[in-house]
Amino acid sequence: MHELRSKAGWQARVADAMPPEIADDVPPLDLFGLITGLHTRTARIPWDGPDVRIIEHPAHSPGHAALLVERSGVLVAGDMLSDLFPPMLDNFGDTNDPVEEYLVGLRLLEGVMDNVDELVPGHGSAVGGADQVRARIELDRAYLDAPRSGRTPDDPRIGSARPGWEWVGSIHEGQAQSFARWQSRA
After folding, report:
1. N or C: which terminus of the chain carries fewer CB neighbours within 10 A?
2. Can you give the pTM of this predicted structure?
3. Which CATH superfamily is domain 37-185 in?
4. Sign of CA pseudo-dihedral 19, 58, 101, 50
5. How is the chain split into domains, by residue range?
6. 180: confidence class by pLDDT, cuts 50, 70, 90
7. Which among 171, 163, 103 is positioned nearest to 138, based on CA atoms?
């Protein structure tokens, strides 16, 4: 995020990427990206609480991570594995292939799923059990594979939003444009 903040016009880019329905509910952008992060490759939360493994990966945004509370088998997936949102790719970074970076994140989450009893997505409406980890990974992977195969994603999260969540469709619309842009670079 610090890299994003160093670029001219970053606030306008972030504001333009937000769905209009929630833009007024977001705190001032002056605070965006000012969290002091842990050192790169920190493997565990350094605290006196339960043992929490950090699963850092490039999906969604640089430095993104999921947390696995190992003893209780709880996976806090960050901004991944939502039951309401399709995968939200890195539209702000300078990555050459945000789809592949998201797939890397999915593979890392898949690598710990045998240790997961409960899934907590960063966005969505429902905590899921162990069965939901694999189901949501497969759903996300299918969403990402469709444009690469020249197909439109057949994803229940697109166009079937609950009342008040209709703006979720704009996530997909924006990403469809991004898919075309990324594929033209390849």
Report:
1. C
2. 0.77
3. Ribonuclease Z/Hydroxyacylglutathione hydrolase-like (3.60.15.10)
4. negative
5. 37-185
6. confident
7. 103
